[in-house]
TrEMBL record:
GO terms for molecular function: peptidase activity. GO terms for biological process: proteolysis; tRNA threonylcarbamoyladenosine modification. This is tRNA threonylcarbamoyladenosine biosynthesis protein TsaB. It comes from the Bacteria. Its main location: cytoplasm. It holds the Pfam family TsaD. CDD domains: ASKHA_NBD_TsaB (cd24032). The keyword Hydrolase applies. Residues 31-160 form the Gcp-like domain. Belongs to the KAE1 / TsaD family. TsaB subfamily. Keywords: Cytoplasm, Hydrolase, Protease, tRNA processing.
Length: 237
């Protein structure tokens, strides 16, 4: 892992974040930039690379938050990731924003049972239920998140129905819990409300070693809502 250099970016929610793994160390920048992702993300990338004296060509792969999240934010992140990766001829690792928040709960409080919920507006949330297990491989021991409830979009009541009997040991993360009255008193809430690129790096490392990378032209954002679509760069539909 000390020889692995990864850059992660995320603009899928009101958070805008960049993180770098280089020589076994992580550096990161997190901002709230709800309407200025397109103006902030590239300067943040330049800053974090310059801070560690790294250029794009030195990266092993580019990591990005592929959603779910706001339509505009997910689209911006996917477009920036596609442009950077094509320009530097880098493989891409696509990471779930919901799983990234579960990873944050693990790193901050050793939580291995997490329910994630991001406010999707229109009385809906993006949510998933995840349980972690440690997996040994030839590359070392990694944390693997398994879906108990697959990530989806729906009303707060839909999440409650799928959870069934609530278990106190499950940790809740994301903006969805405070946004809707039906969810406010459920679970063990944390201060983790938005995804961050630094935790995407943790998820991306085992994906890199397991060769779970894609080419930049194959980037497909995850919106979850059926009425939105994604078009690749011109000439690559």
């Amino acid at each position: 892992m000390n020889n692995l250099t990864l850059l992660a970016i995320d603009t899928s929610t009101e958070a805008c974040s960049v993180a770098l793994l280089h020589k076994g160390e992580k550096t990161y920048l997190d901002e709230i930039a709800e309407r200025s992702h397109t103006k902030r993300i590239l300067p943040m990338v330049d800053h974090i690379l310059a801070q560690s004296d790294v250029h794009l060509g030195q990266l092993d792969a580019l990591v990005f938050g592929r959603g779910p999240g706001s339509f505009t934010g997910v689209r911006v992140g996917a477009g920036i990731a596609q442009g950077l990766a094509l320009g530097a001829d880098l493989p891409v690792i696509a990471v779930s924003n919901l799983t990234a928040m579960a990873q944050a709960a693990y790193e901050q409080m050793q939580a291995t049972q997490v329910v994630t919920a991001i406010d999707a507006r229109m009385n809906e949330i993006y949510f998933s239920q995840l349980k972690a297990e440690k997996v040994r491989s030839e590359f070392g021991e990694f944390l693997q998140w398994n879906e108990v409830i697959a990530e989806q979009v729906g009303t707060p009541n839909r999440l409650i129905e799928q959870l069934g009997q609530w278990l106190d040991e499950w940790v809740t993360v994301g903006t969805g819990w405070a946004a809707y009255n039906a969810l406010q008193l459920m679970g063990k809430n944390t201060t983790i409300t938005l995804p961050s690129a630094q935790y995407m790096l943790s998820l991306a490392v085992p994906m890199w070693y397991q060769r779970q990378t894609i080419h930049a032209v194959d980037i497909e954002p995850v919106y979850l809502r059926n009425e939105v679509t994604w078009k690749k760069l011109p000439g690559r539909e």
